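Morning - zinc ion inputs below, output right after.
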Amino acid sequence: MNRRVARLAVALISGWILFSSCNNSGSTMKLKDPATEQAETGVSRKTITAESPAVAKEKTIDNLLAACNGETTASAKYAAYSKKAEQQGFHQIAILFSAVSAAEKIHYGNHKAVLEQSGIKTVPFNPEFTVKSTMENLQDAIKGETYVATAMYPEFLKIADEAGNQMAILSLNYAFKTEKKHRVMFENALAALENNTVKSLSAMYYVCATCGNTYDAAPPQRCGICMTGSEKFIKIN
Ligand SMILES: [Zn+2]
């Protein structure tokens, strides 16, 4: 409860700072184009954006909470999709779903750890999703990974950067870089399913225990995203 009050106070104070700074300058100052502004003031637009660091800090906490829920749902959903793929006789796709499920769980753990550093606890919840055919499940997975890799994580990273929250940037980047790979893996699996070549897909994956990076073949000595040694990778087969 106290934390909620504190966060509300921070939001109010930052709102007041924004409001009062607008009041002081609003009537006489017009926005110039960023290049002119920088030449005249030596200050880039980025540092005088309407988004104050205090607001960006608050938003980053909310974004990490949203990302935790997203990763929890994705992990549970892909585990269920894996079972379905196995039932339908698509063993290689079942393994892919299991590997990505494990990776999303690692992303959840990282985001949660960053929140805990700020004294915020995540609230457990039961994810809701629908299991359909493996083809539809792959289409759903591609849609989800595309959203997080092209919209959600880039936006969250931008705000975490404005907040200067280095731990959040690290955790969000691990997820962002991995989700881009997951999208391609799901696209390849869907193409294989459509072309009846599922058996040519990999049936063994390696997931980096630090960042969730996912390899569909023997991994290099160190993770390509976070440099963790491959002896710490989780083998999924
Ligand atoms: Zn890694």
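Note: The pocket of zinc ion is lined by residues 208, 210-211, 213, 223, 225-226, 228 (CB under 6 Å).

O.
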